[in-house]
Specification:
The protein is mainly alpha-helical and 244 residues long. 84% of the residues lie in helices and 0% in strands. The protein has a domain of 117 residues. The chain starts with a helix and ends with a helix. This is Tight adherence protein B.
C-alpha cells in the first residue's frame, strides 16, 4: 500500500513538472511575460484589475476605435475625442491598457504636440505586443489621414473591422488547438496512470522500474521520450498561437 502511495505521488509530481515545462522553455520573452504576470498578481492582491486576456483586448480595441470614429463623426475634434475616451475608459477600468493609450493621446493633444507623439509614448511604455501593434496602426492611420485628407473616422471604422476579424481568427485558432492541448495533457498523464493502474491490479511496476537493470533503463527512456514528446507538441501548438 505504501508503495502504491509513493508511486502515485511520484507520478503526479512528474506530470506536474512536465505540464509546467513548456512555460519554462517557451518563447524568448518569457522573463517579460513572467514579470507582467507577477505585477498583475500583485495588482489583484492590492485590489486592482488583472491583466487583460488577448481576445478581450482585441474586442476592447475594436470598441475603442468605433467610439473614436463615432465621436469624430459627431463633430468632436481629435483632442476632444481623446479626452472623452479617456474619461470613459477611466470610469470603466483605470488599469486597462487602453486607458493608458487614451491618456497619452489626450495629454499630447492638450500640450499641442499632436496625437502621434502621445501614441508613440504609449507604444514605448507598453510591453504588450498586441497593444503595441494597435498603437502603431493608429499612428499609421492618423498619418495617412493627414497626408491624404481621408476622413479619419472612416479609416478608424476600417481599422475596427480589422480588429474584429483578428479577434474572430484568434477565437477560431483557440477552438482548433483545444483538441491538441487535451491530447497533449492525456498523453502526459497516461504513463502515470499506467503505473497506478498496475499497482491496483496487483503488479509491482514501481519495483520493476526502480529495481535496476532493464527496468531502470525503461524508466529513463520513458521519461526522456515523454519530455521530448511534450516539448515537441508544445512547440507545434506554440508556433500556431504565436501568429495569432
Amino acid at each position: 500500500m505504501n508503495a502504491l502511495i509513493w508511486a502515485s505521488v511520484a507520478a503526479l509530481v512528474t506530470a506536474a513538472v512536465l505540464l509546467c515545462l513548456p512555460r519554462v522553455v517557451g518563447r524568448k520573452d518569457h522573463s517579460v511575460r513572467a514579470g507582467l504576470r507577477l505585477r498583475s498578481l500583485v495588482r489583484r492582491l492590492r485590489g486592482g484589475g488583472g491583466s487583460i486576456p488577448p481576445e478581450q483586448l482585441r474586442k476592447d480595441s475594436a470598441a475603442l476605435l468605433r467610439q473614436f470614429s463615432a465621436l469624430l463623426q459627431s463633430g468632436r475634434g481629435e483632442g476632444q475625442a481623446w479626452g472623452d475616451l479617456l474619461a470613459h475608459w477611466r470610469r470603466r477600468d483605470a488599469d486597462h491598457p487602453l486607458t493608458l493609450v487614451c491618456a497619452q493621446a489626450a495629454a499630447a493633444e492638450a500640450s499641442g504636440t499632436g496625437t502621434a507623439a502621445g501614441l508613440r509614448r504609449a507604444a514605448e511604455q507598453t510591453q504588450n505586443r498586441q497593444l503595441r501593434q494597435l498603437v502603431n496602426r493608429l499612428i499609421a492611420v492618423t498619418a495617412l489621414s493627414e497626408q491624404t485628407g481621408a476622413a479619419l473616422s472612416h479609416l478608424m471604422e476600417q481599422l475596427a473591422g480589422a480588429a474584429d476579424d483578428s479577434a474572430q481568427l484568434a477565437a477560431a485558432v483557440q477552438t482548433a488547438v483545444a483538441g491538441p492541448k487535451l491530447t497533449q495533457l492525456i498523453l502526459t498523464l497516461l504513463p502515470a496512470g499506467g503505473v497506478v493502474l498496475g499497482h491496483i491490479m496487483g503488479a509491482s511496476p514501481t519495483a520493476t522500474l526502480l529495481g535496476g537493470g532493464l527496468g531502470m533503463l525503461c524508466l529513463i527512456a520513458g521519461i526522456g521520450f515523454l519530455i521530448v514528446g511534450r516539448l515537441w507538441s508544445a512547440r507545434m501548438i506554440g508556433t500556431v498561437m504565436r501568429h495569432v
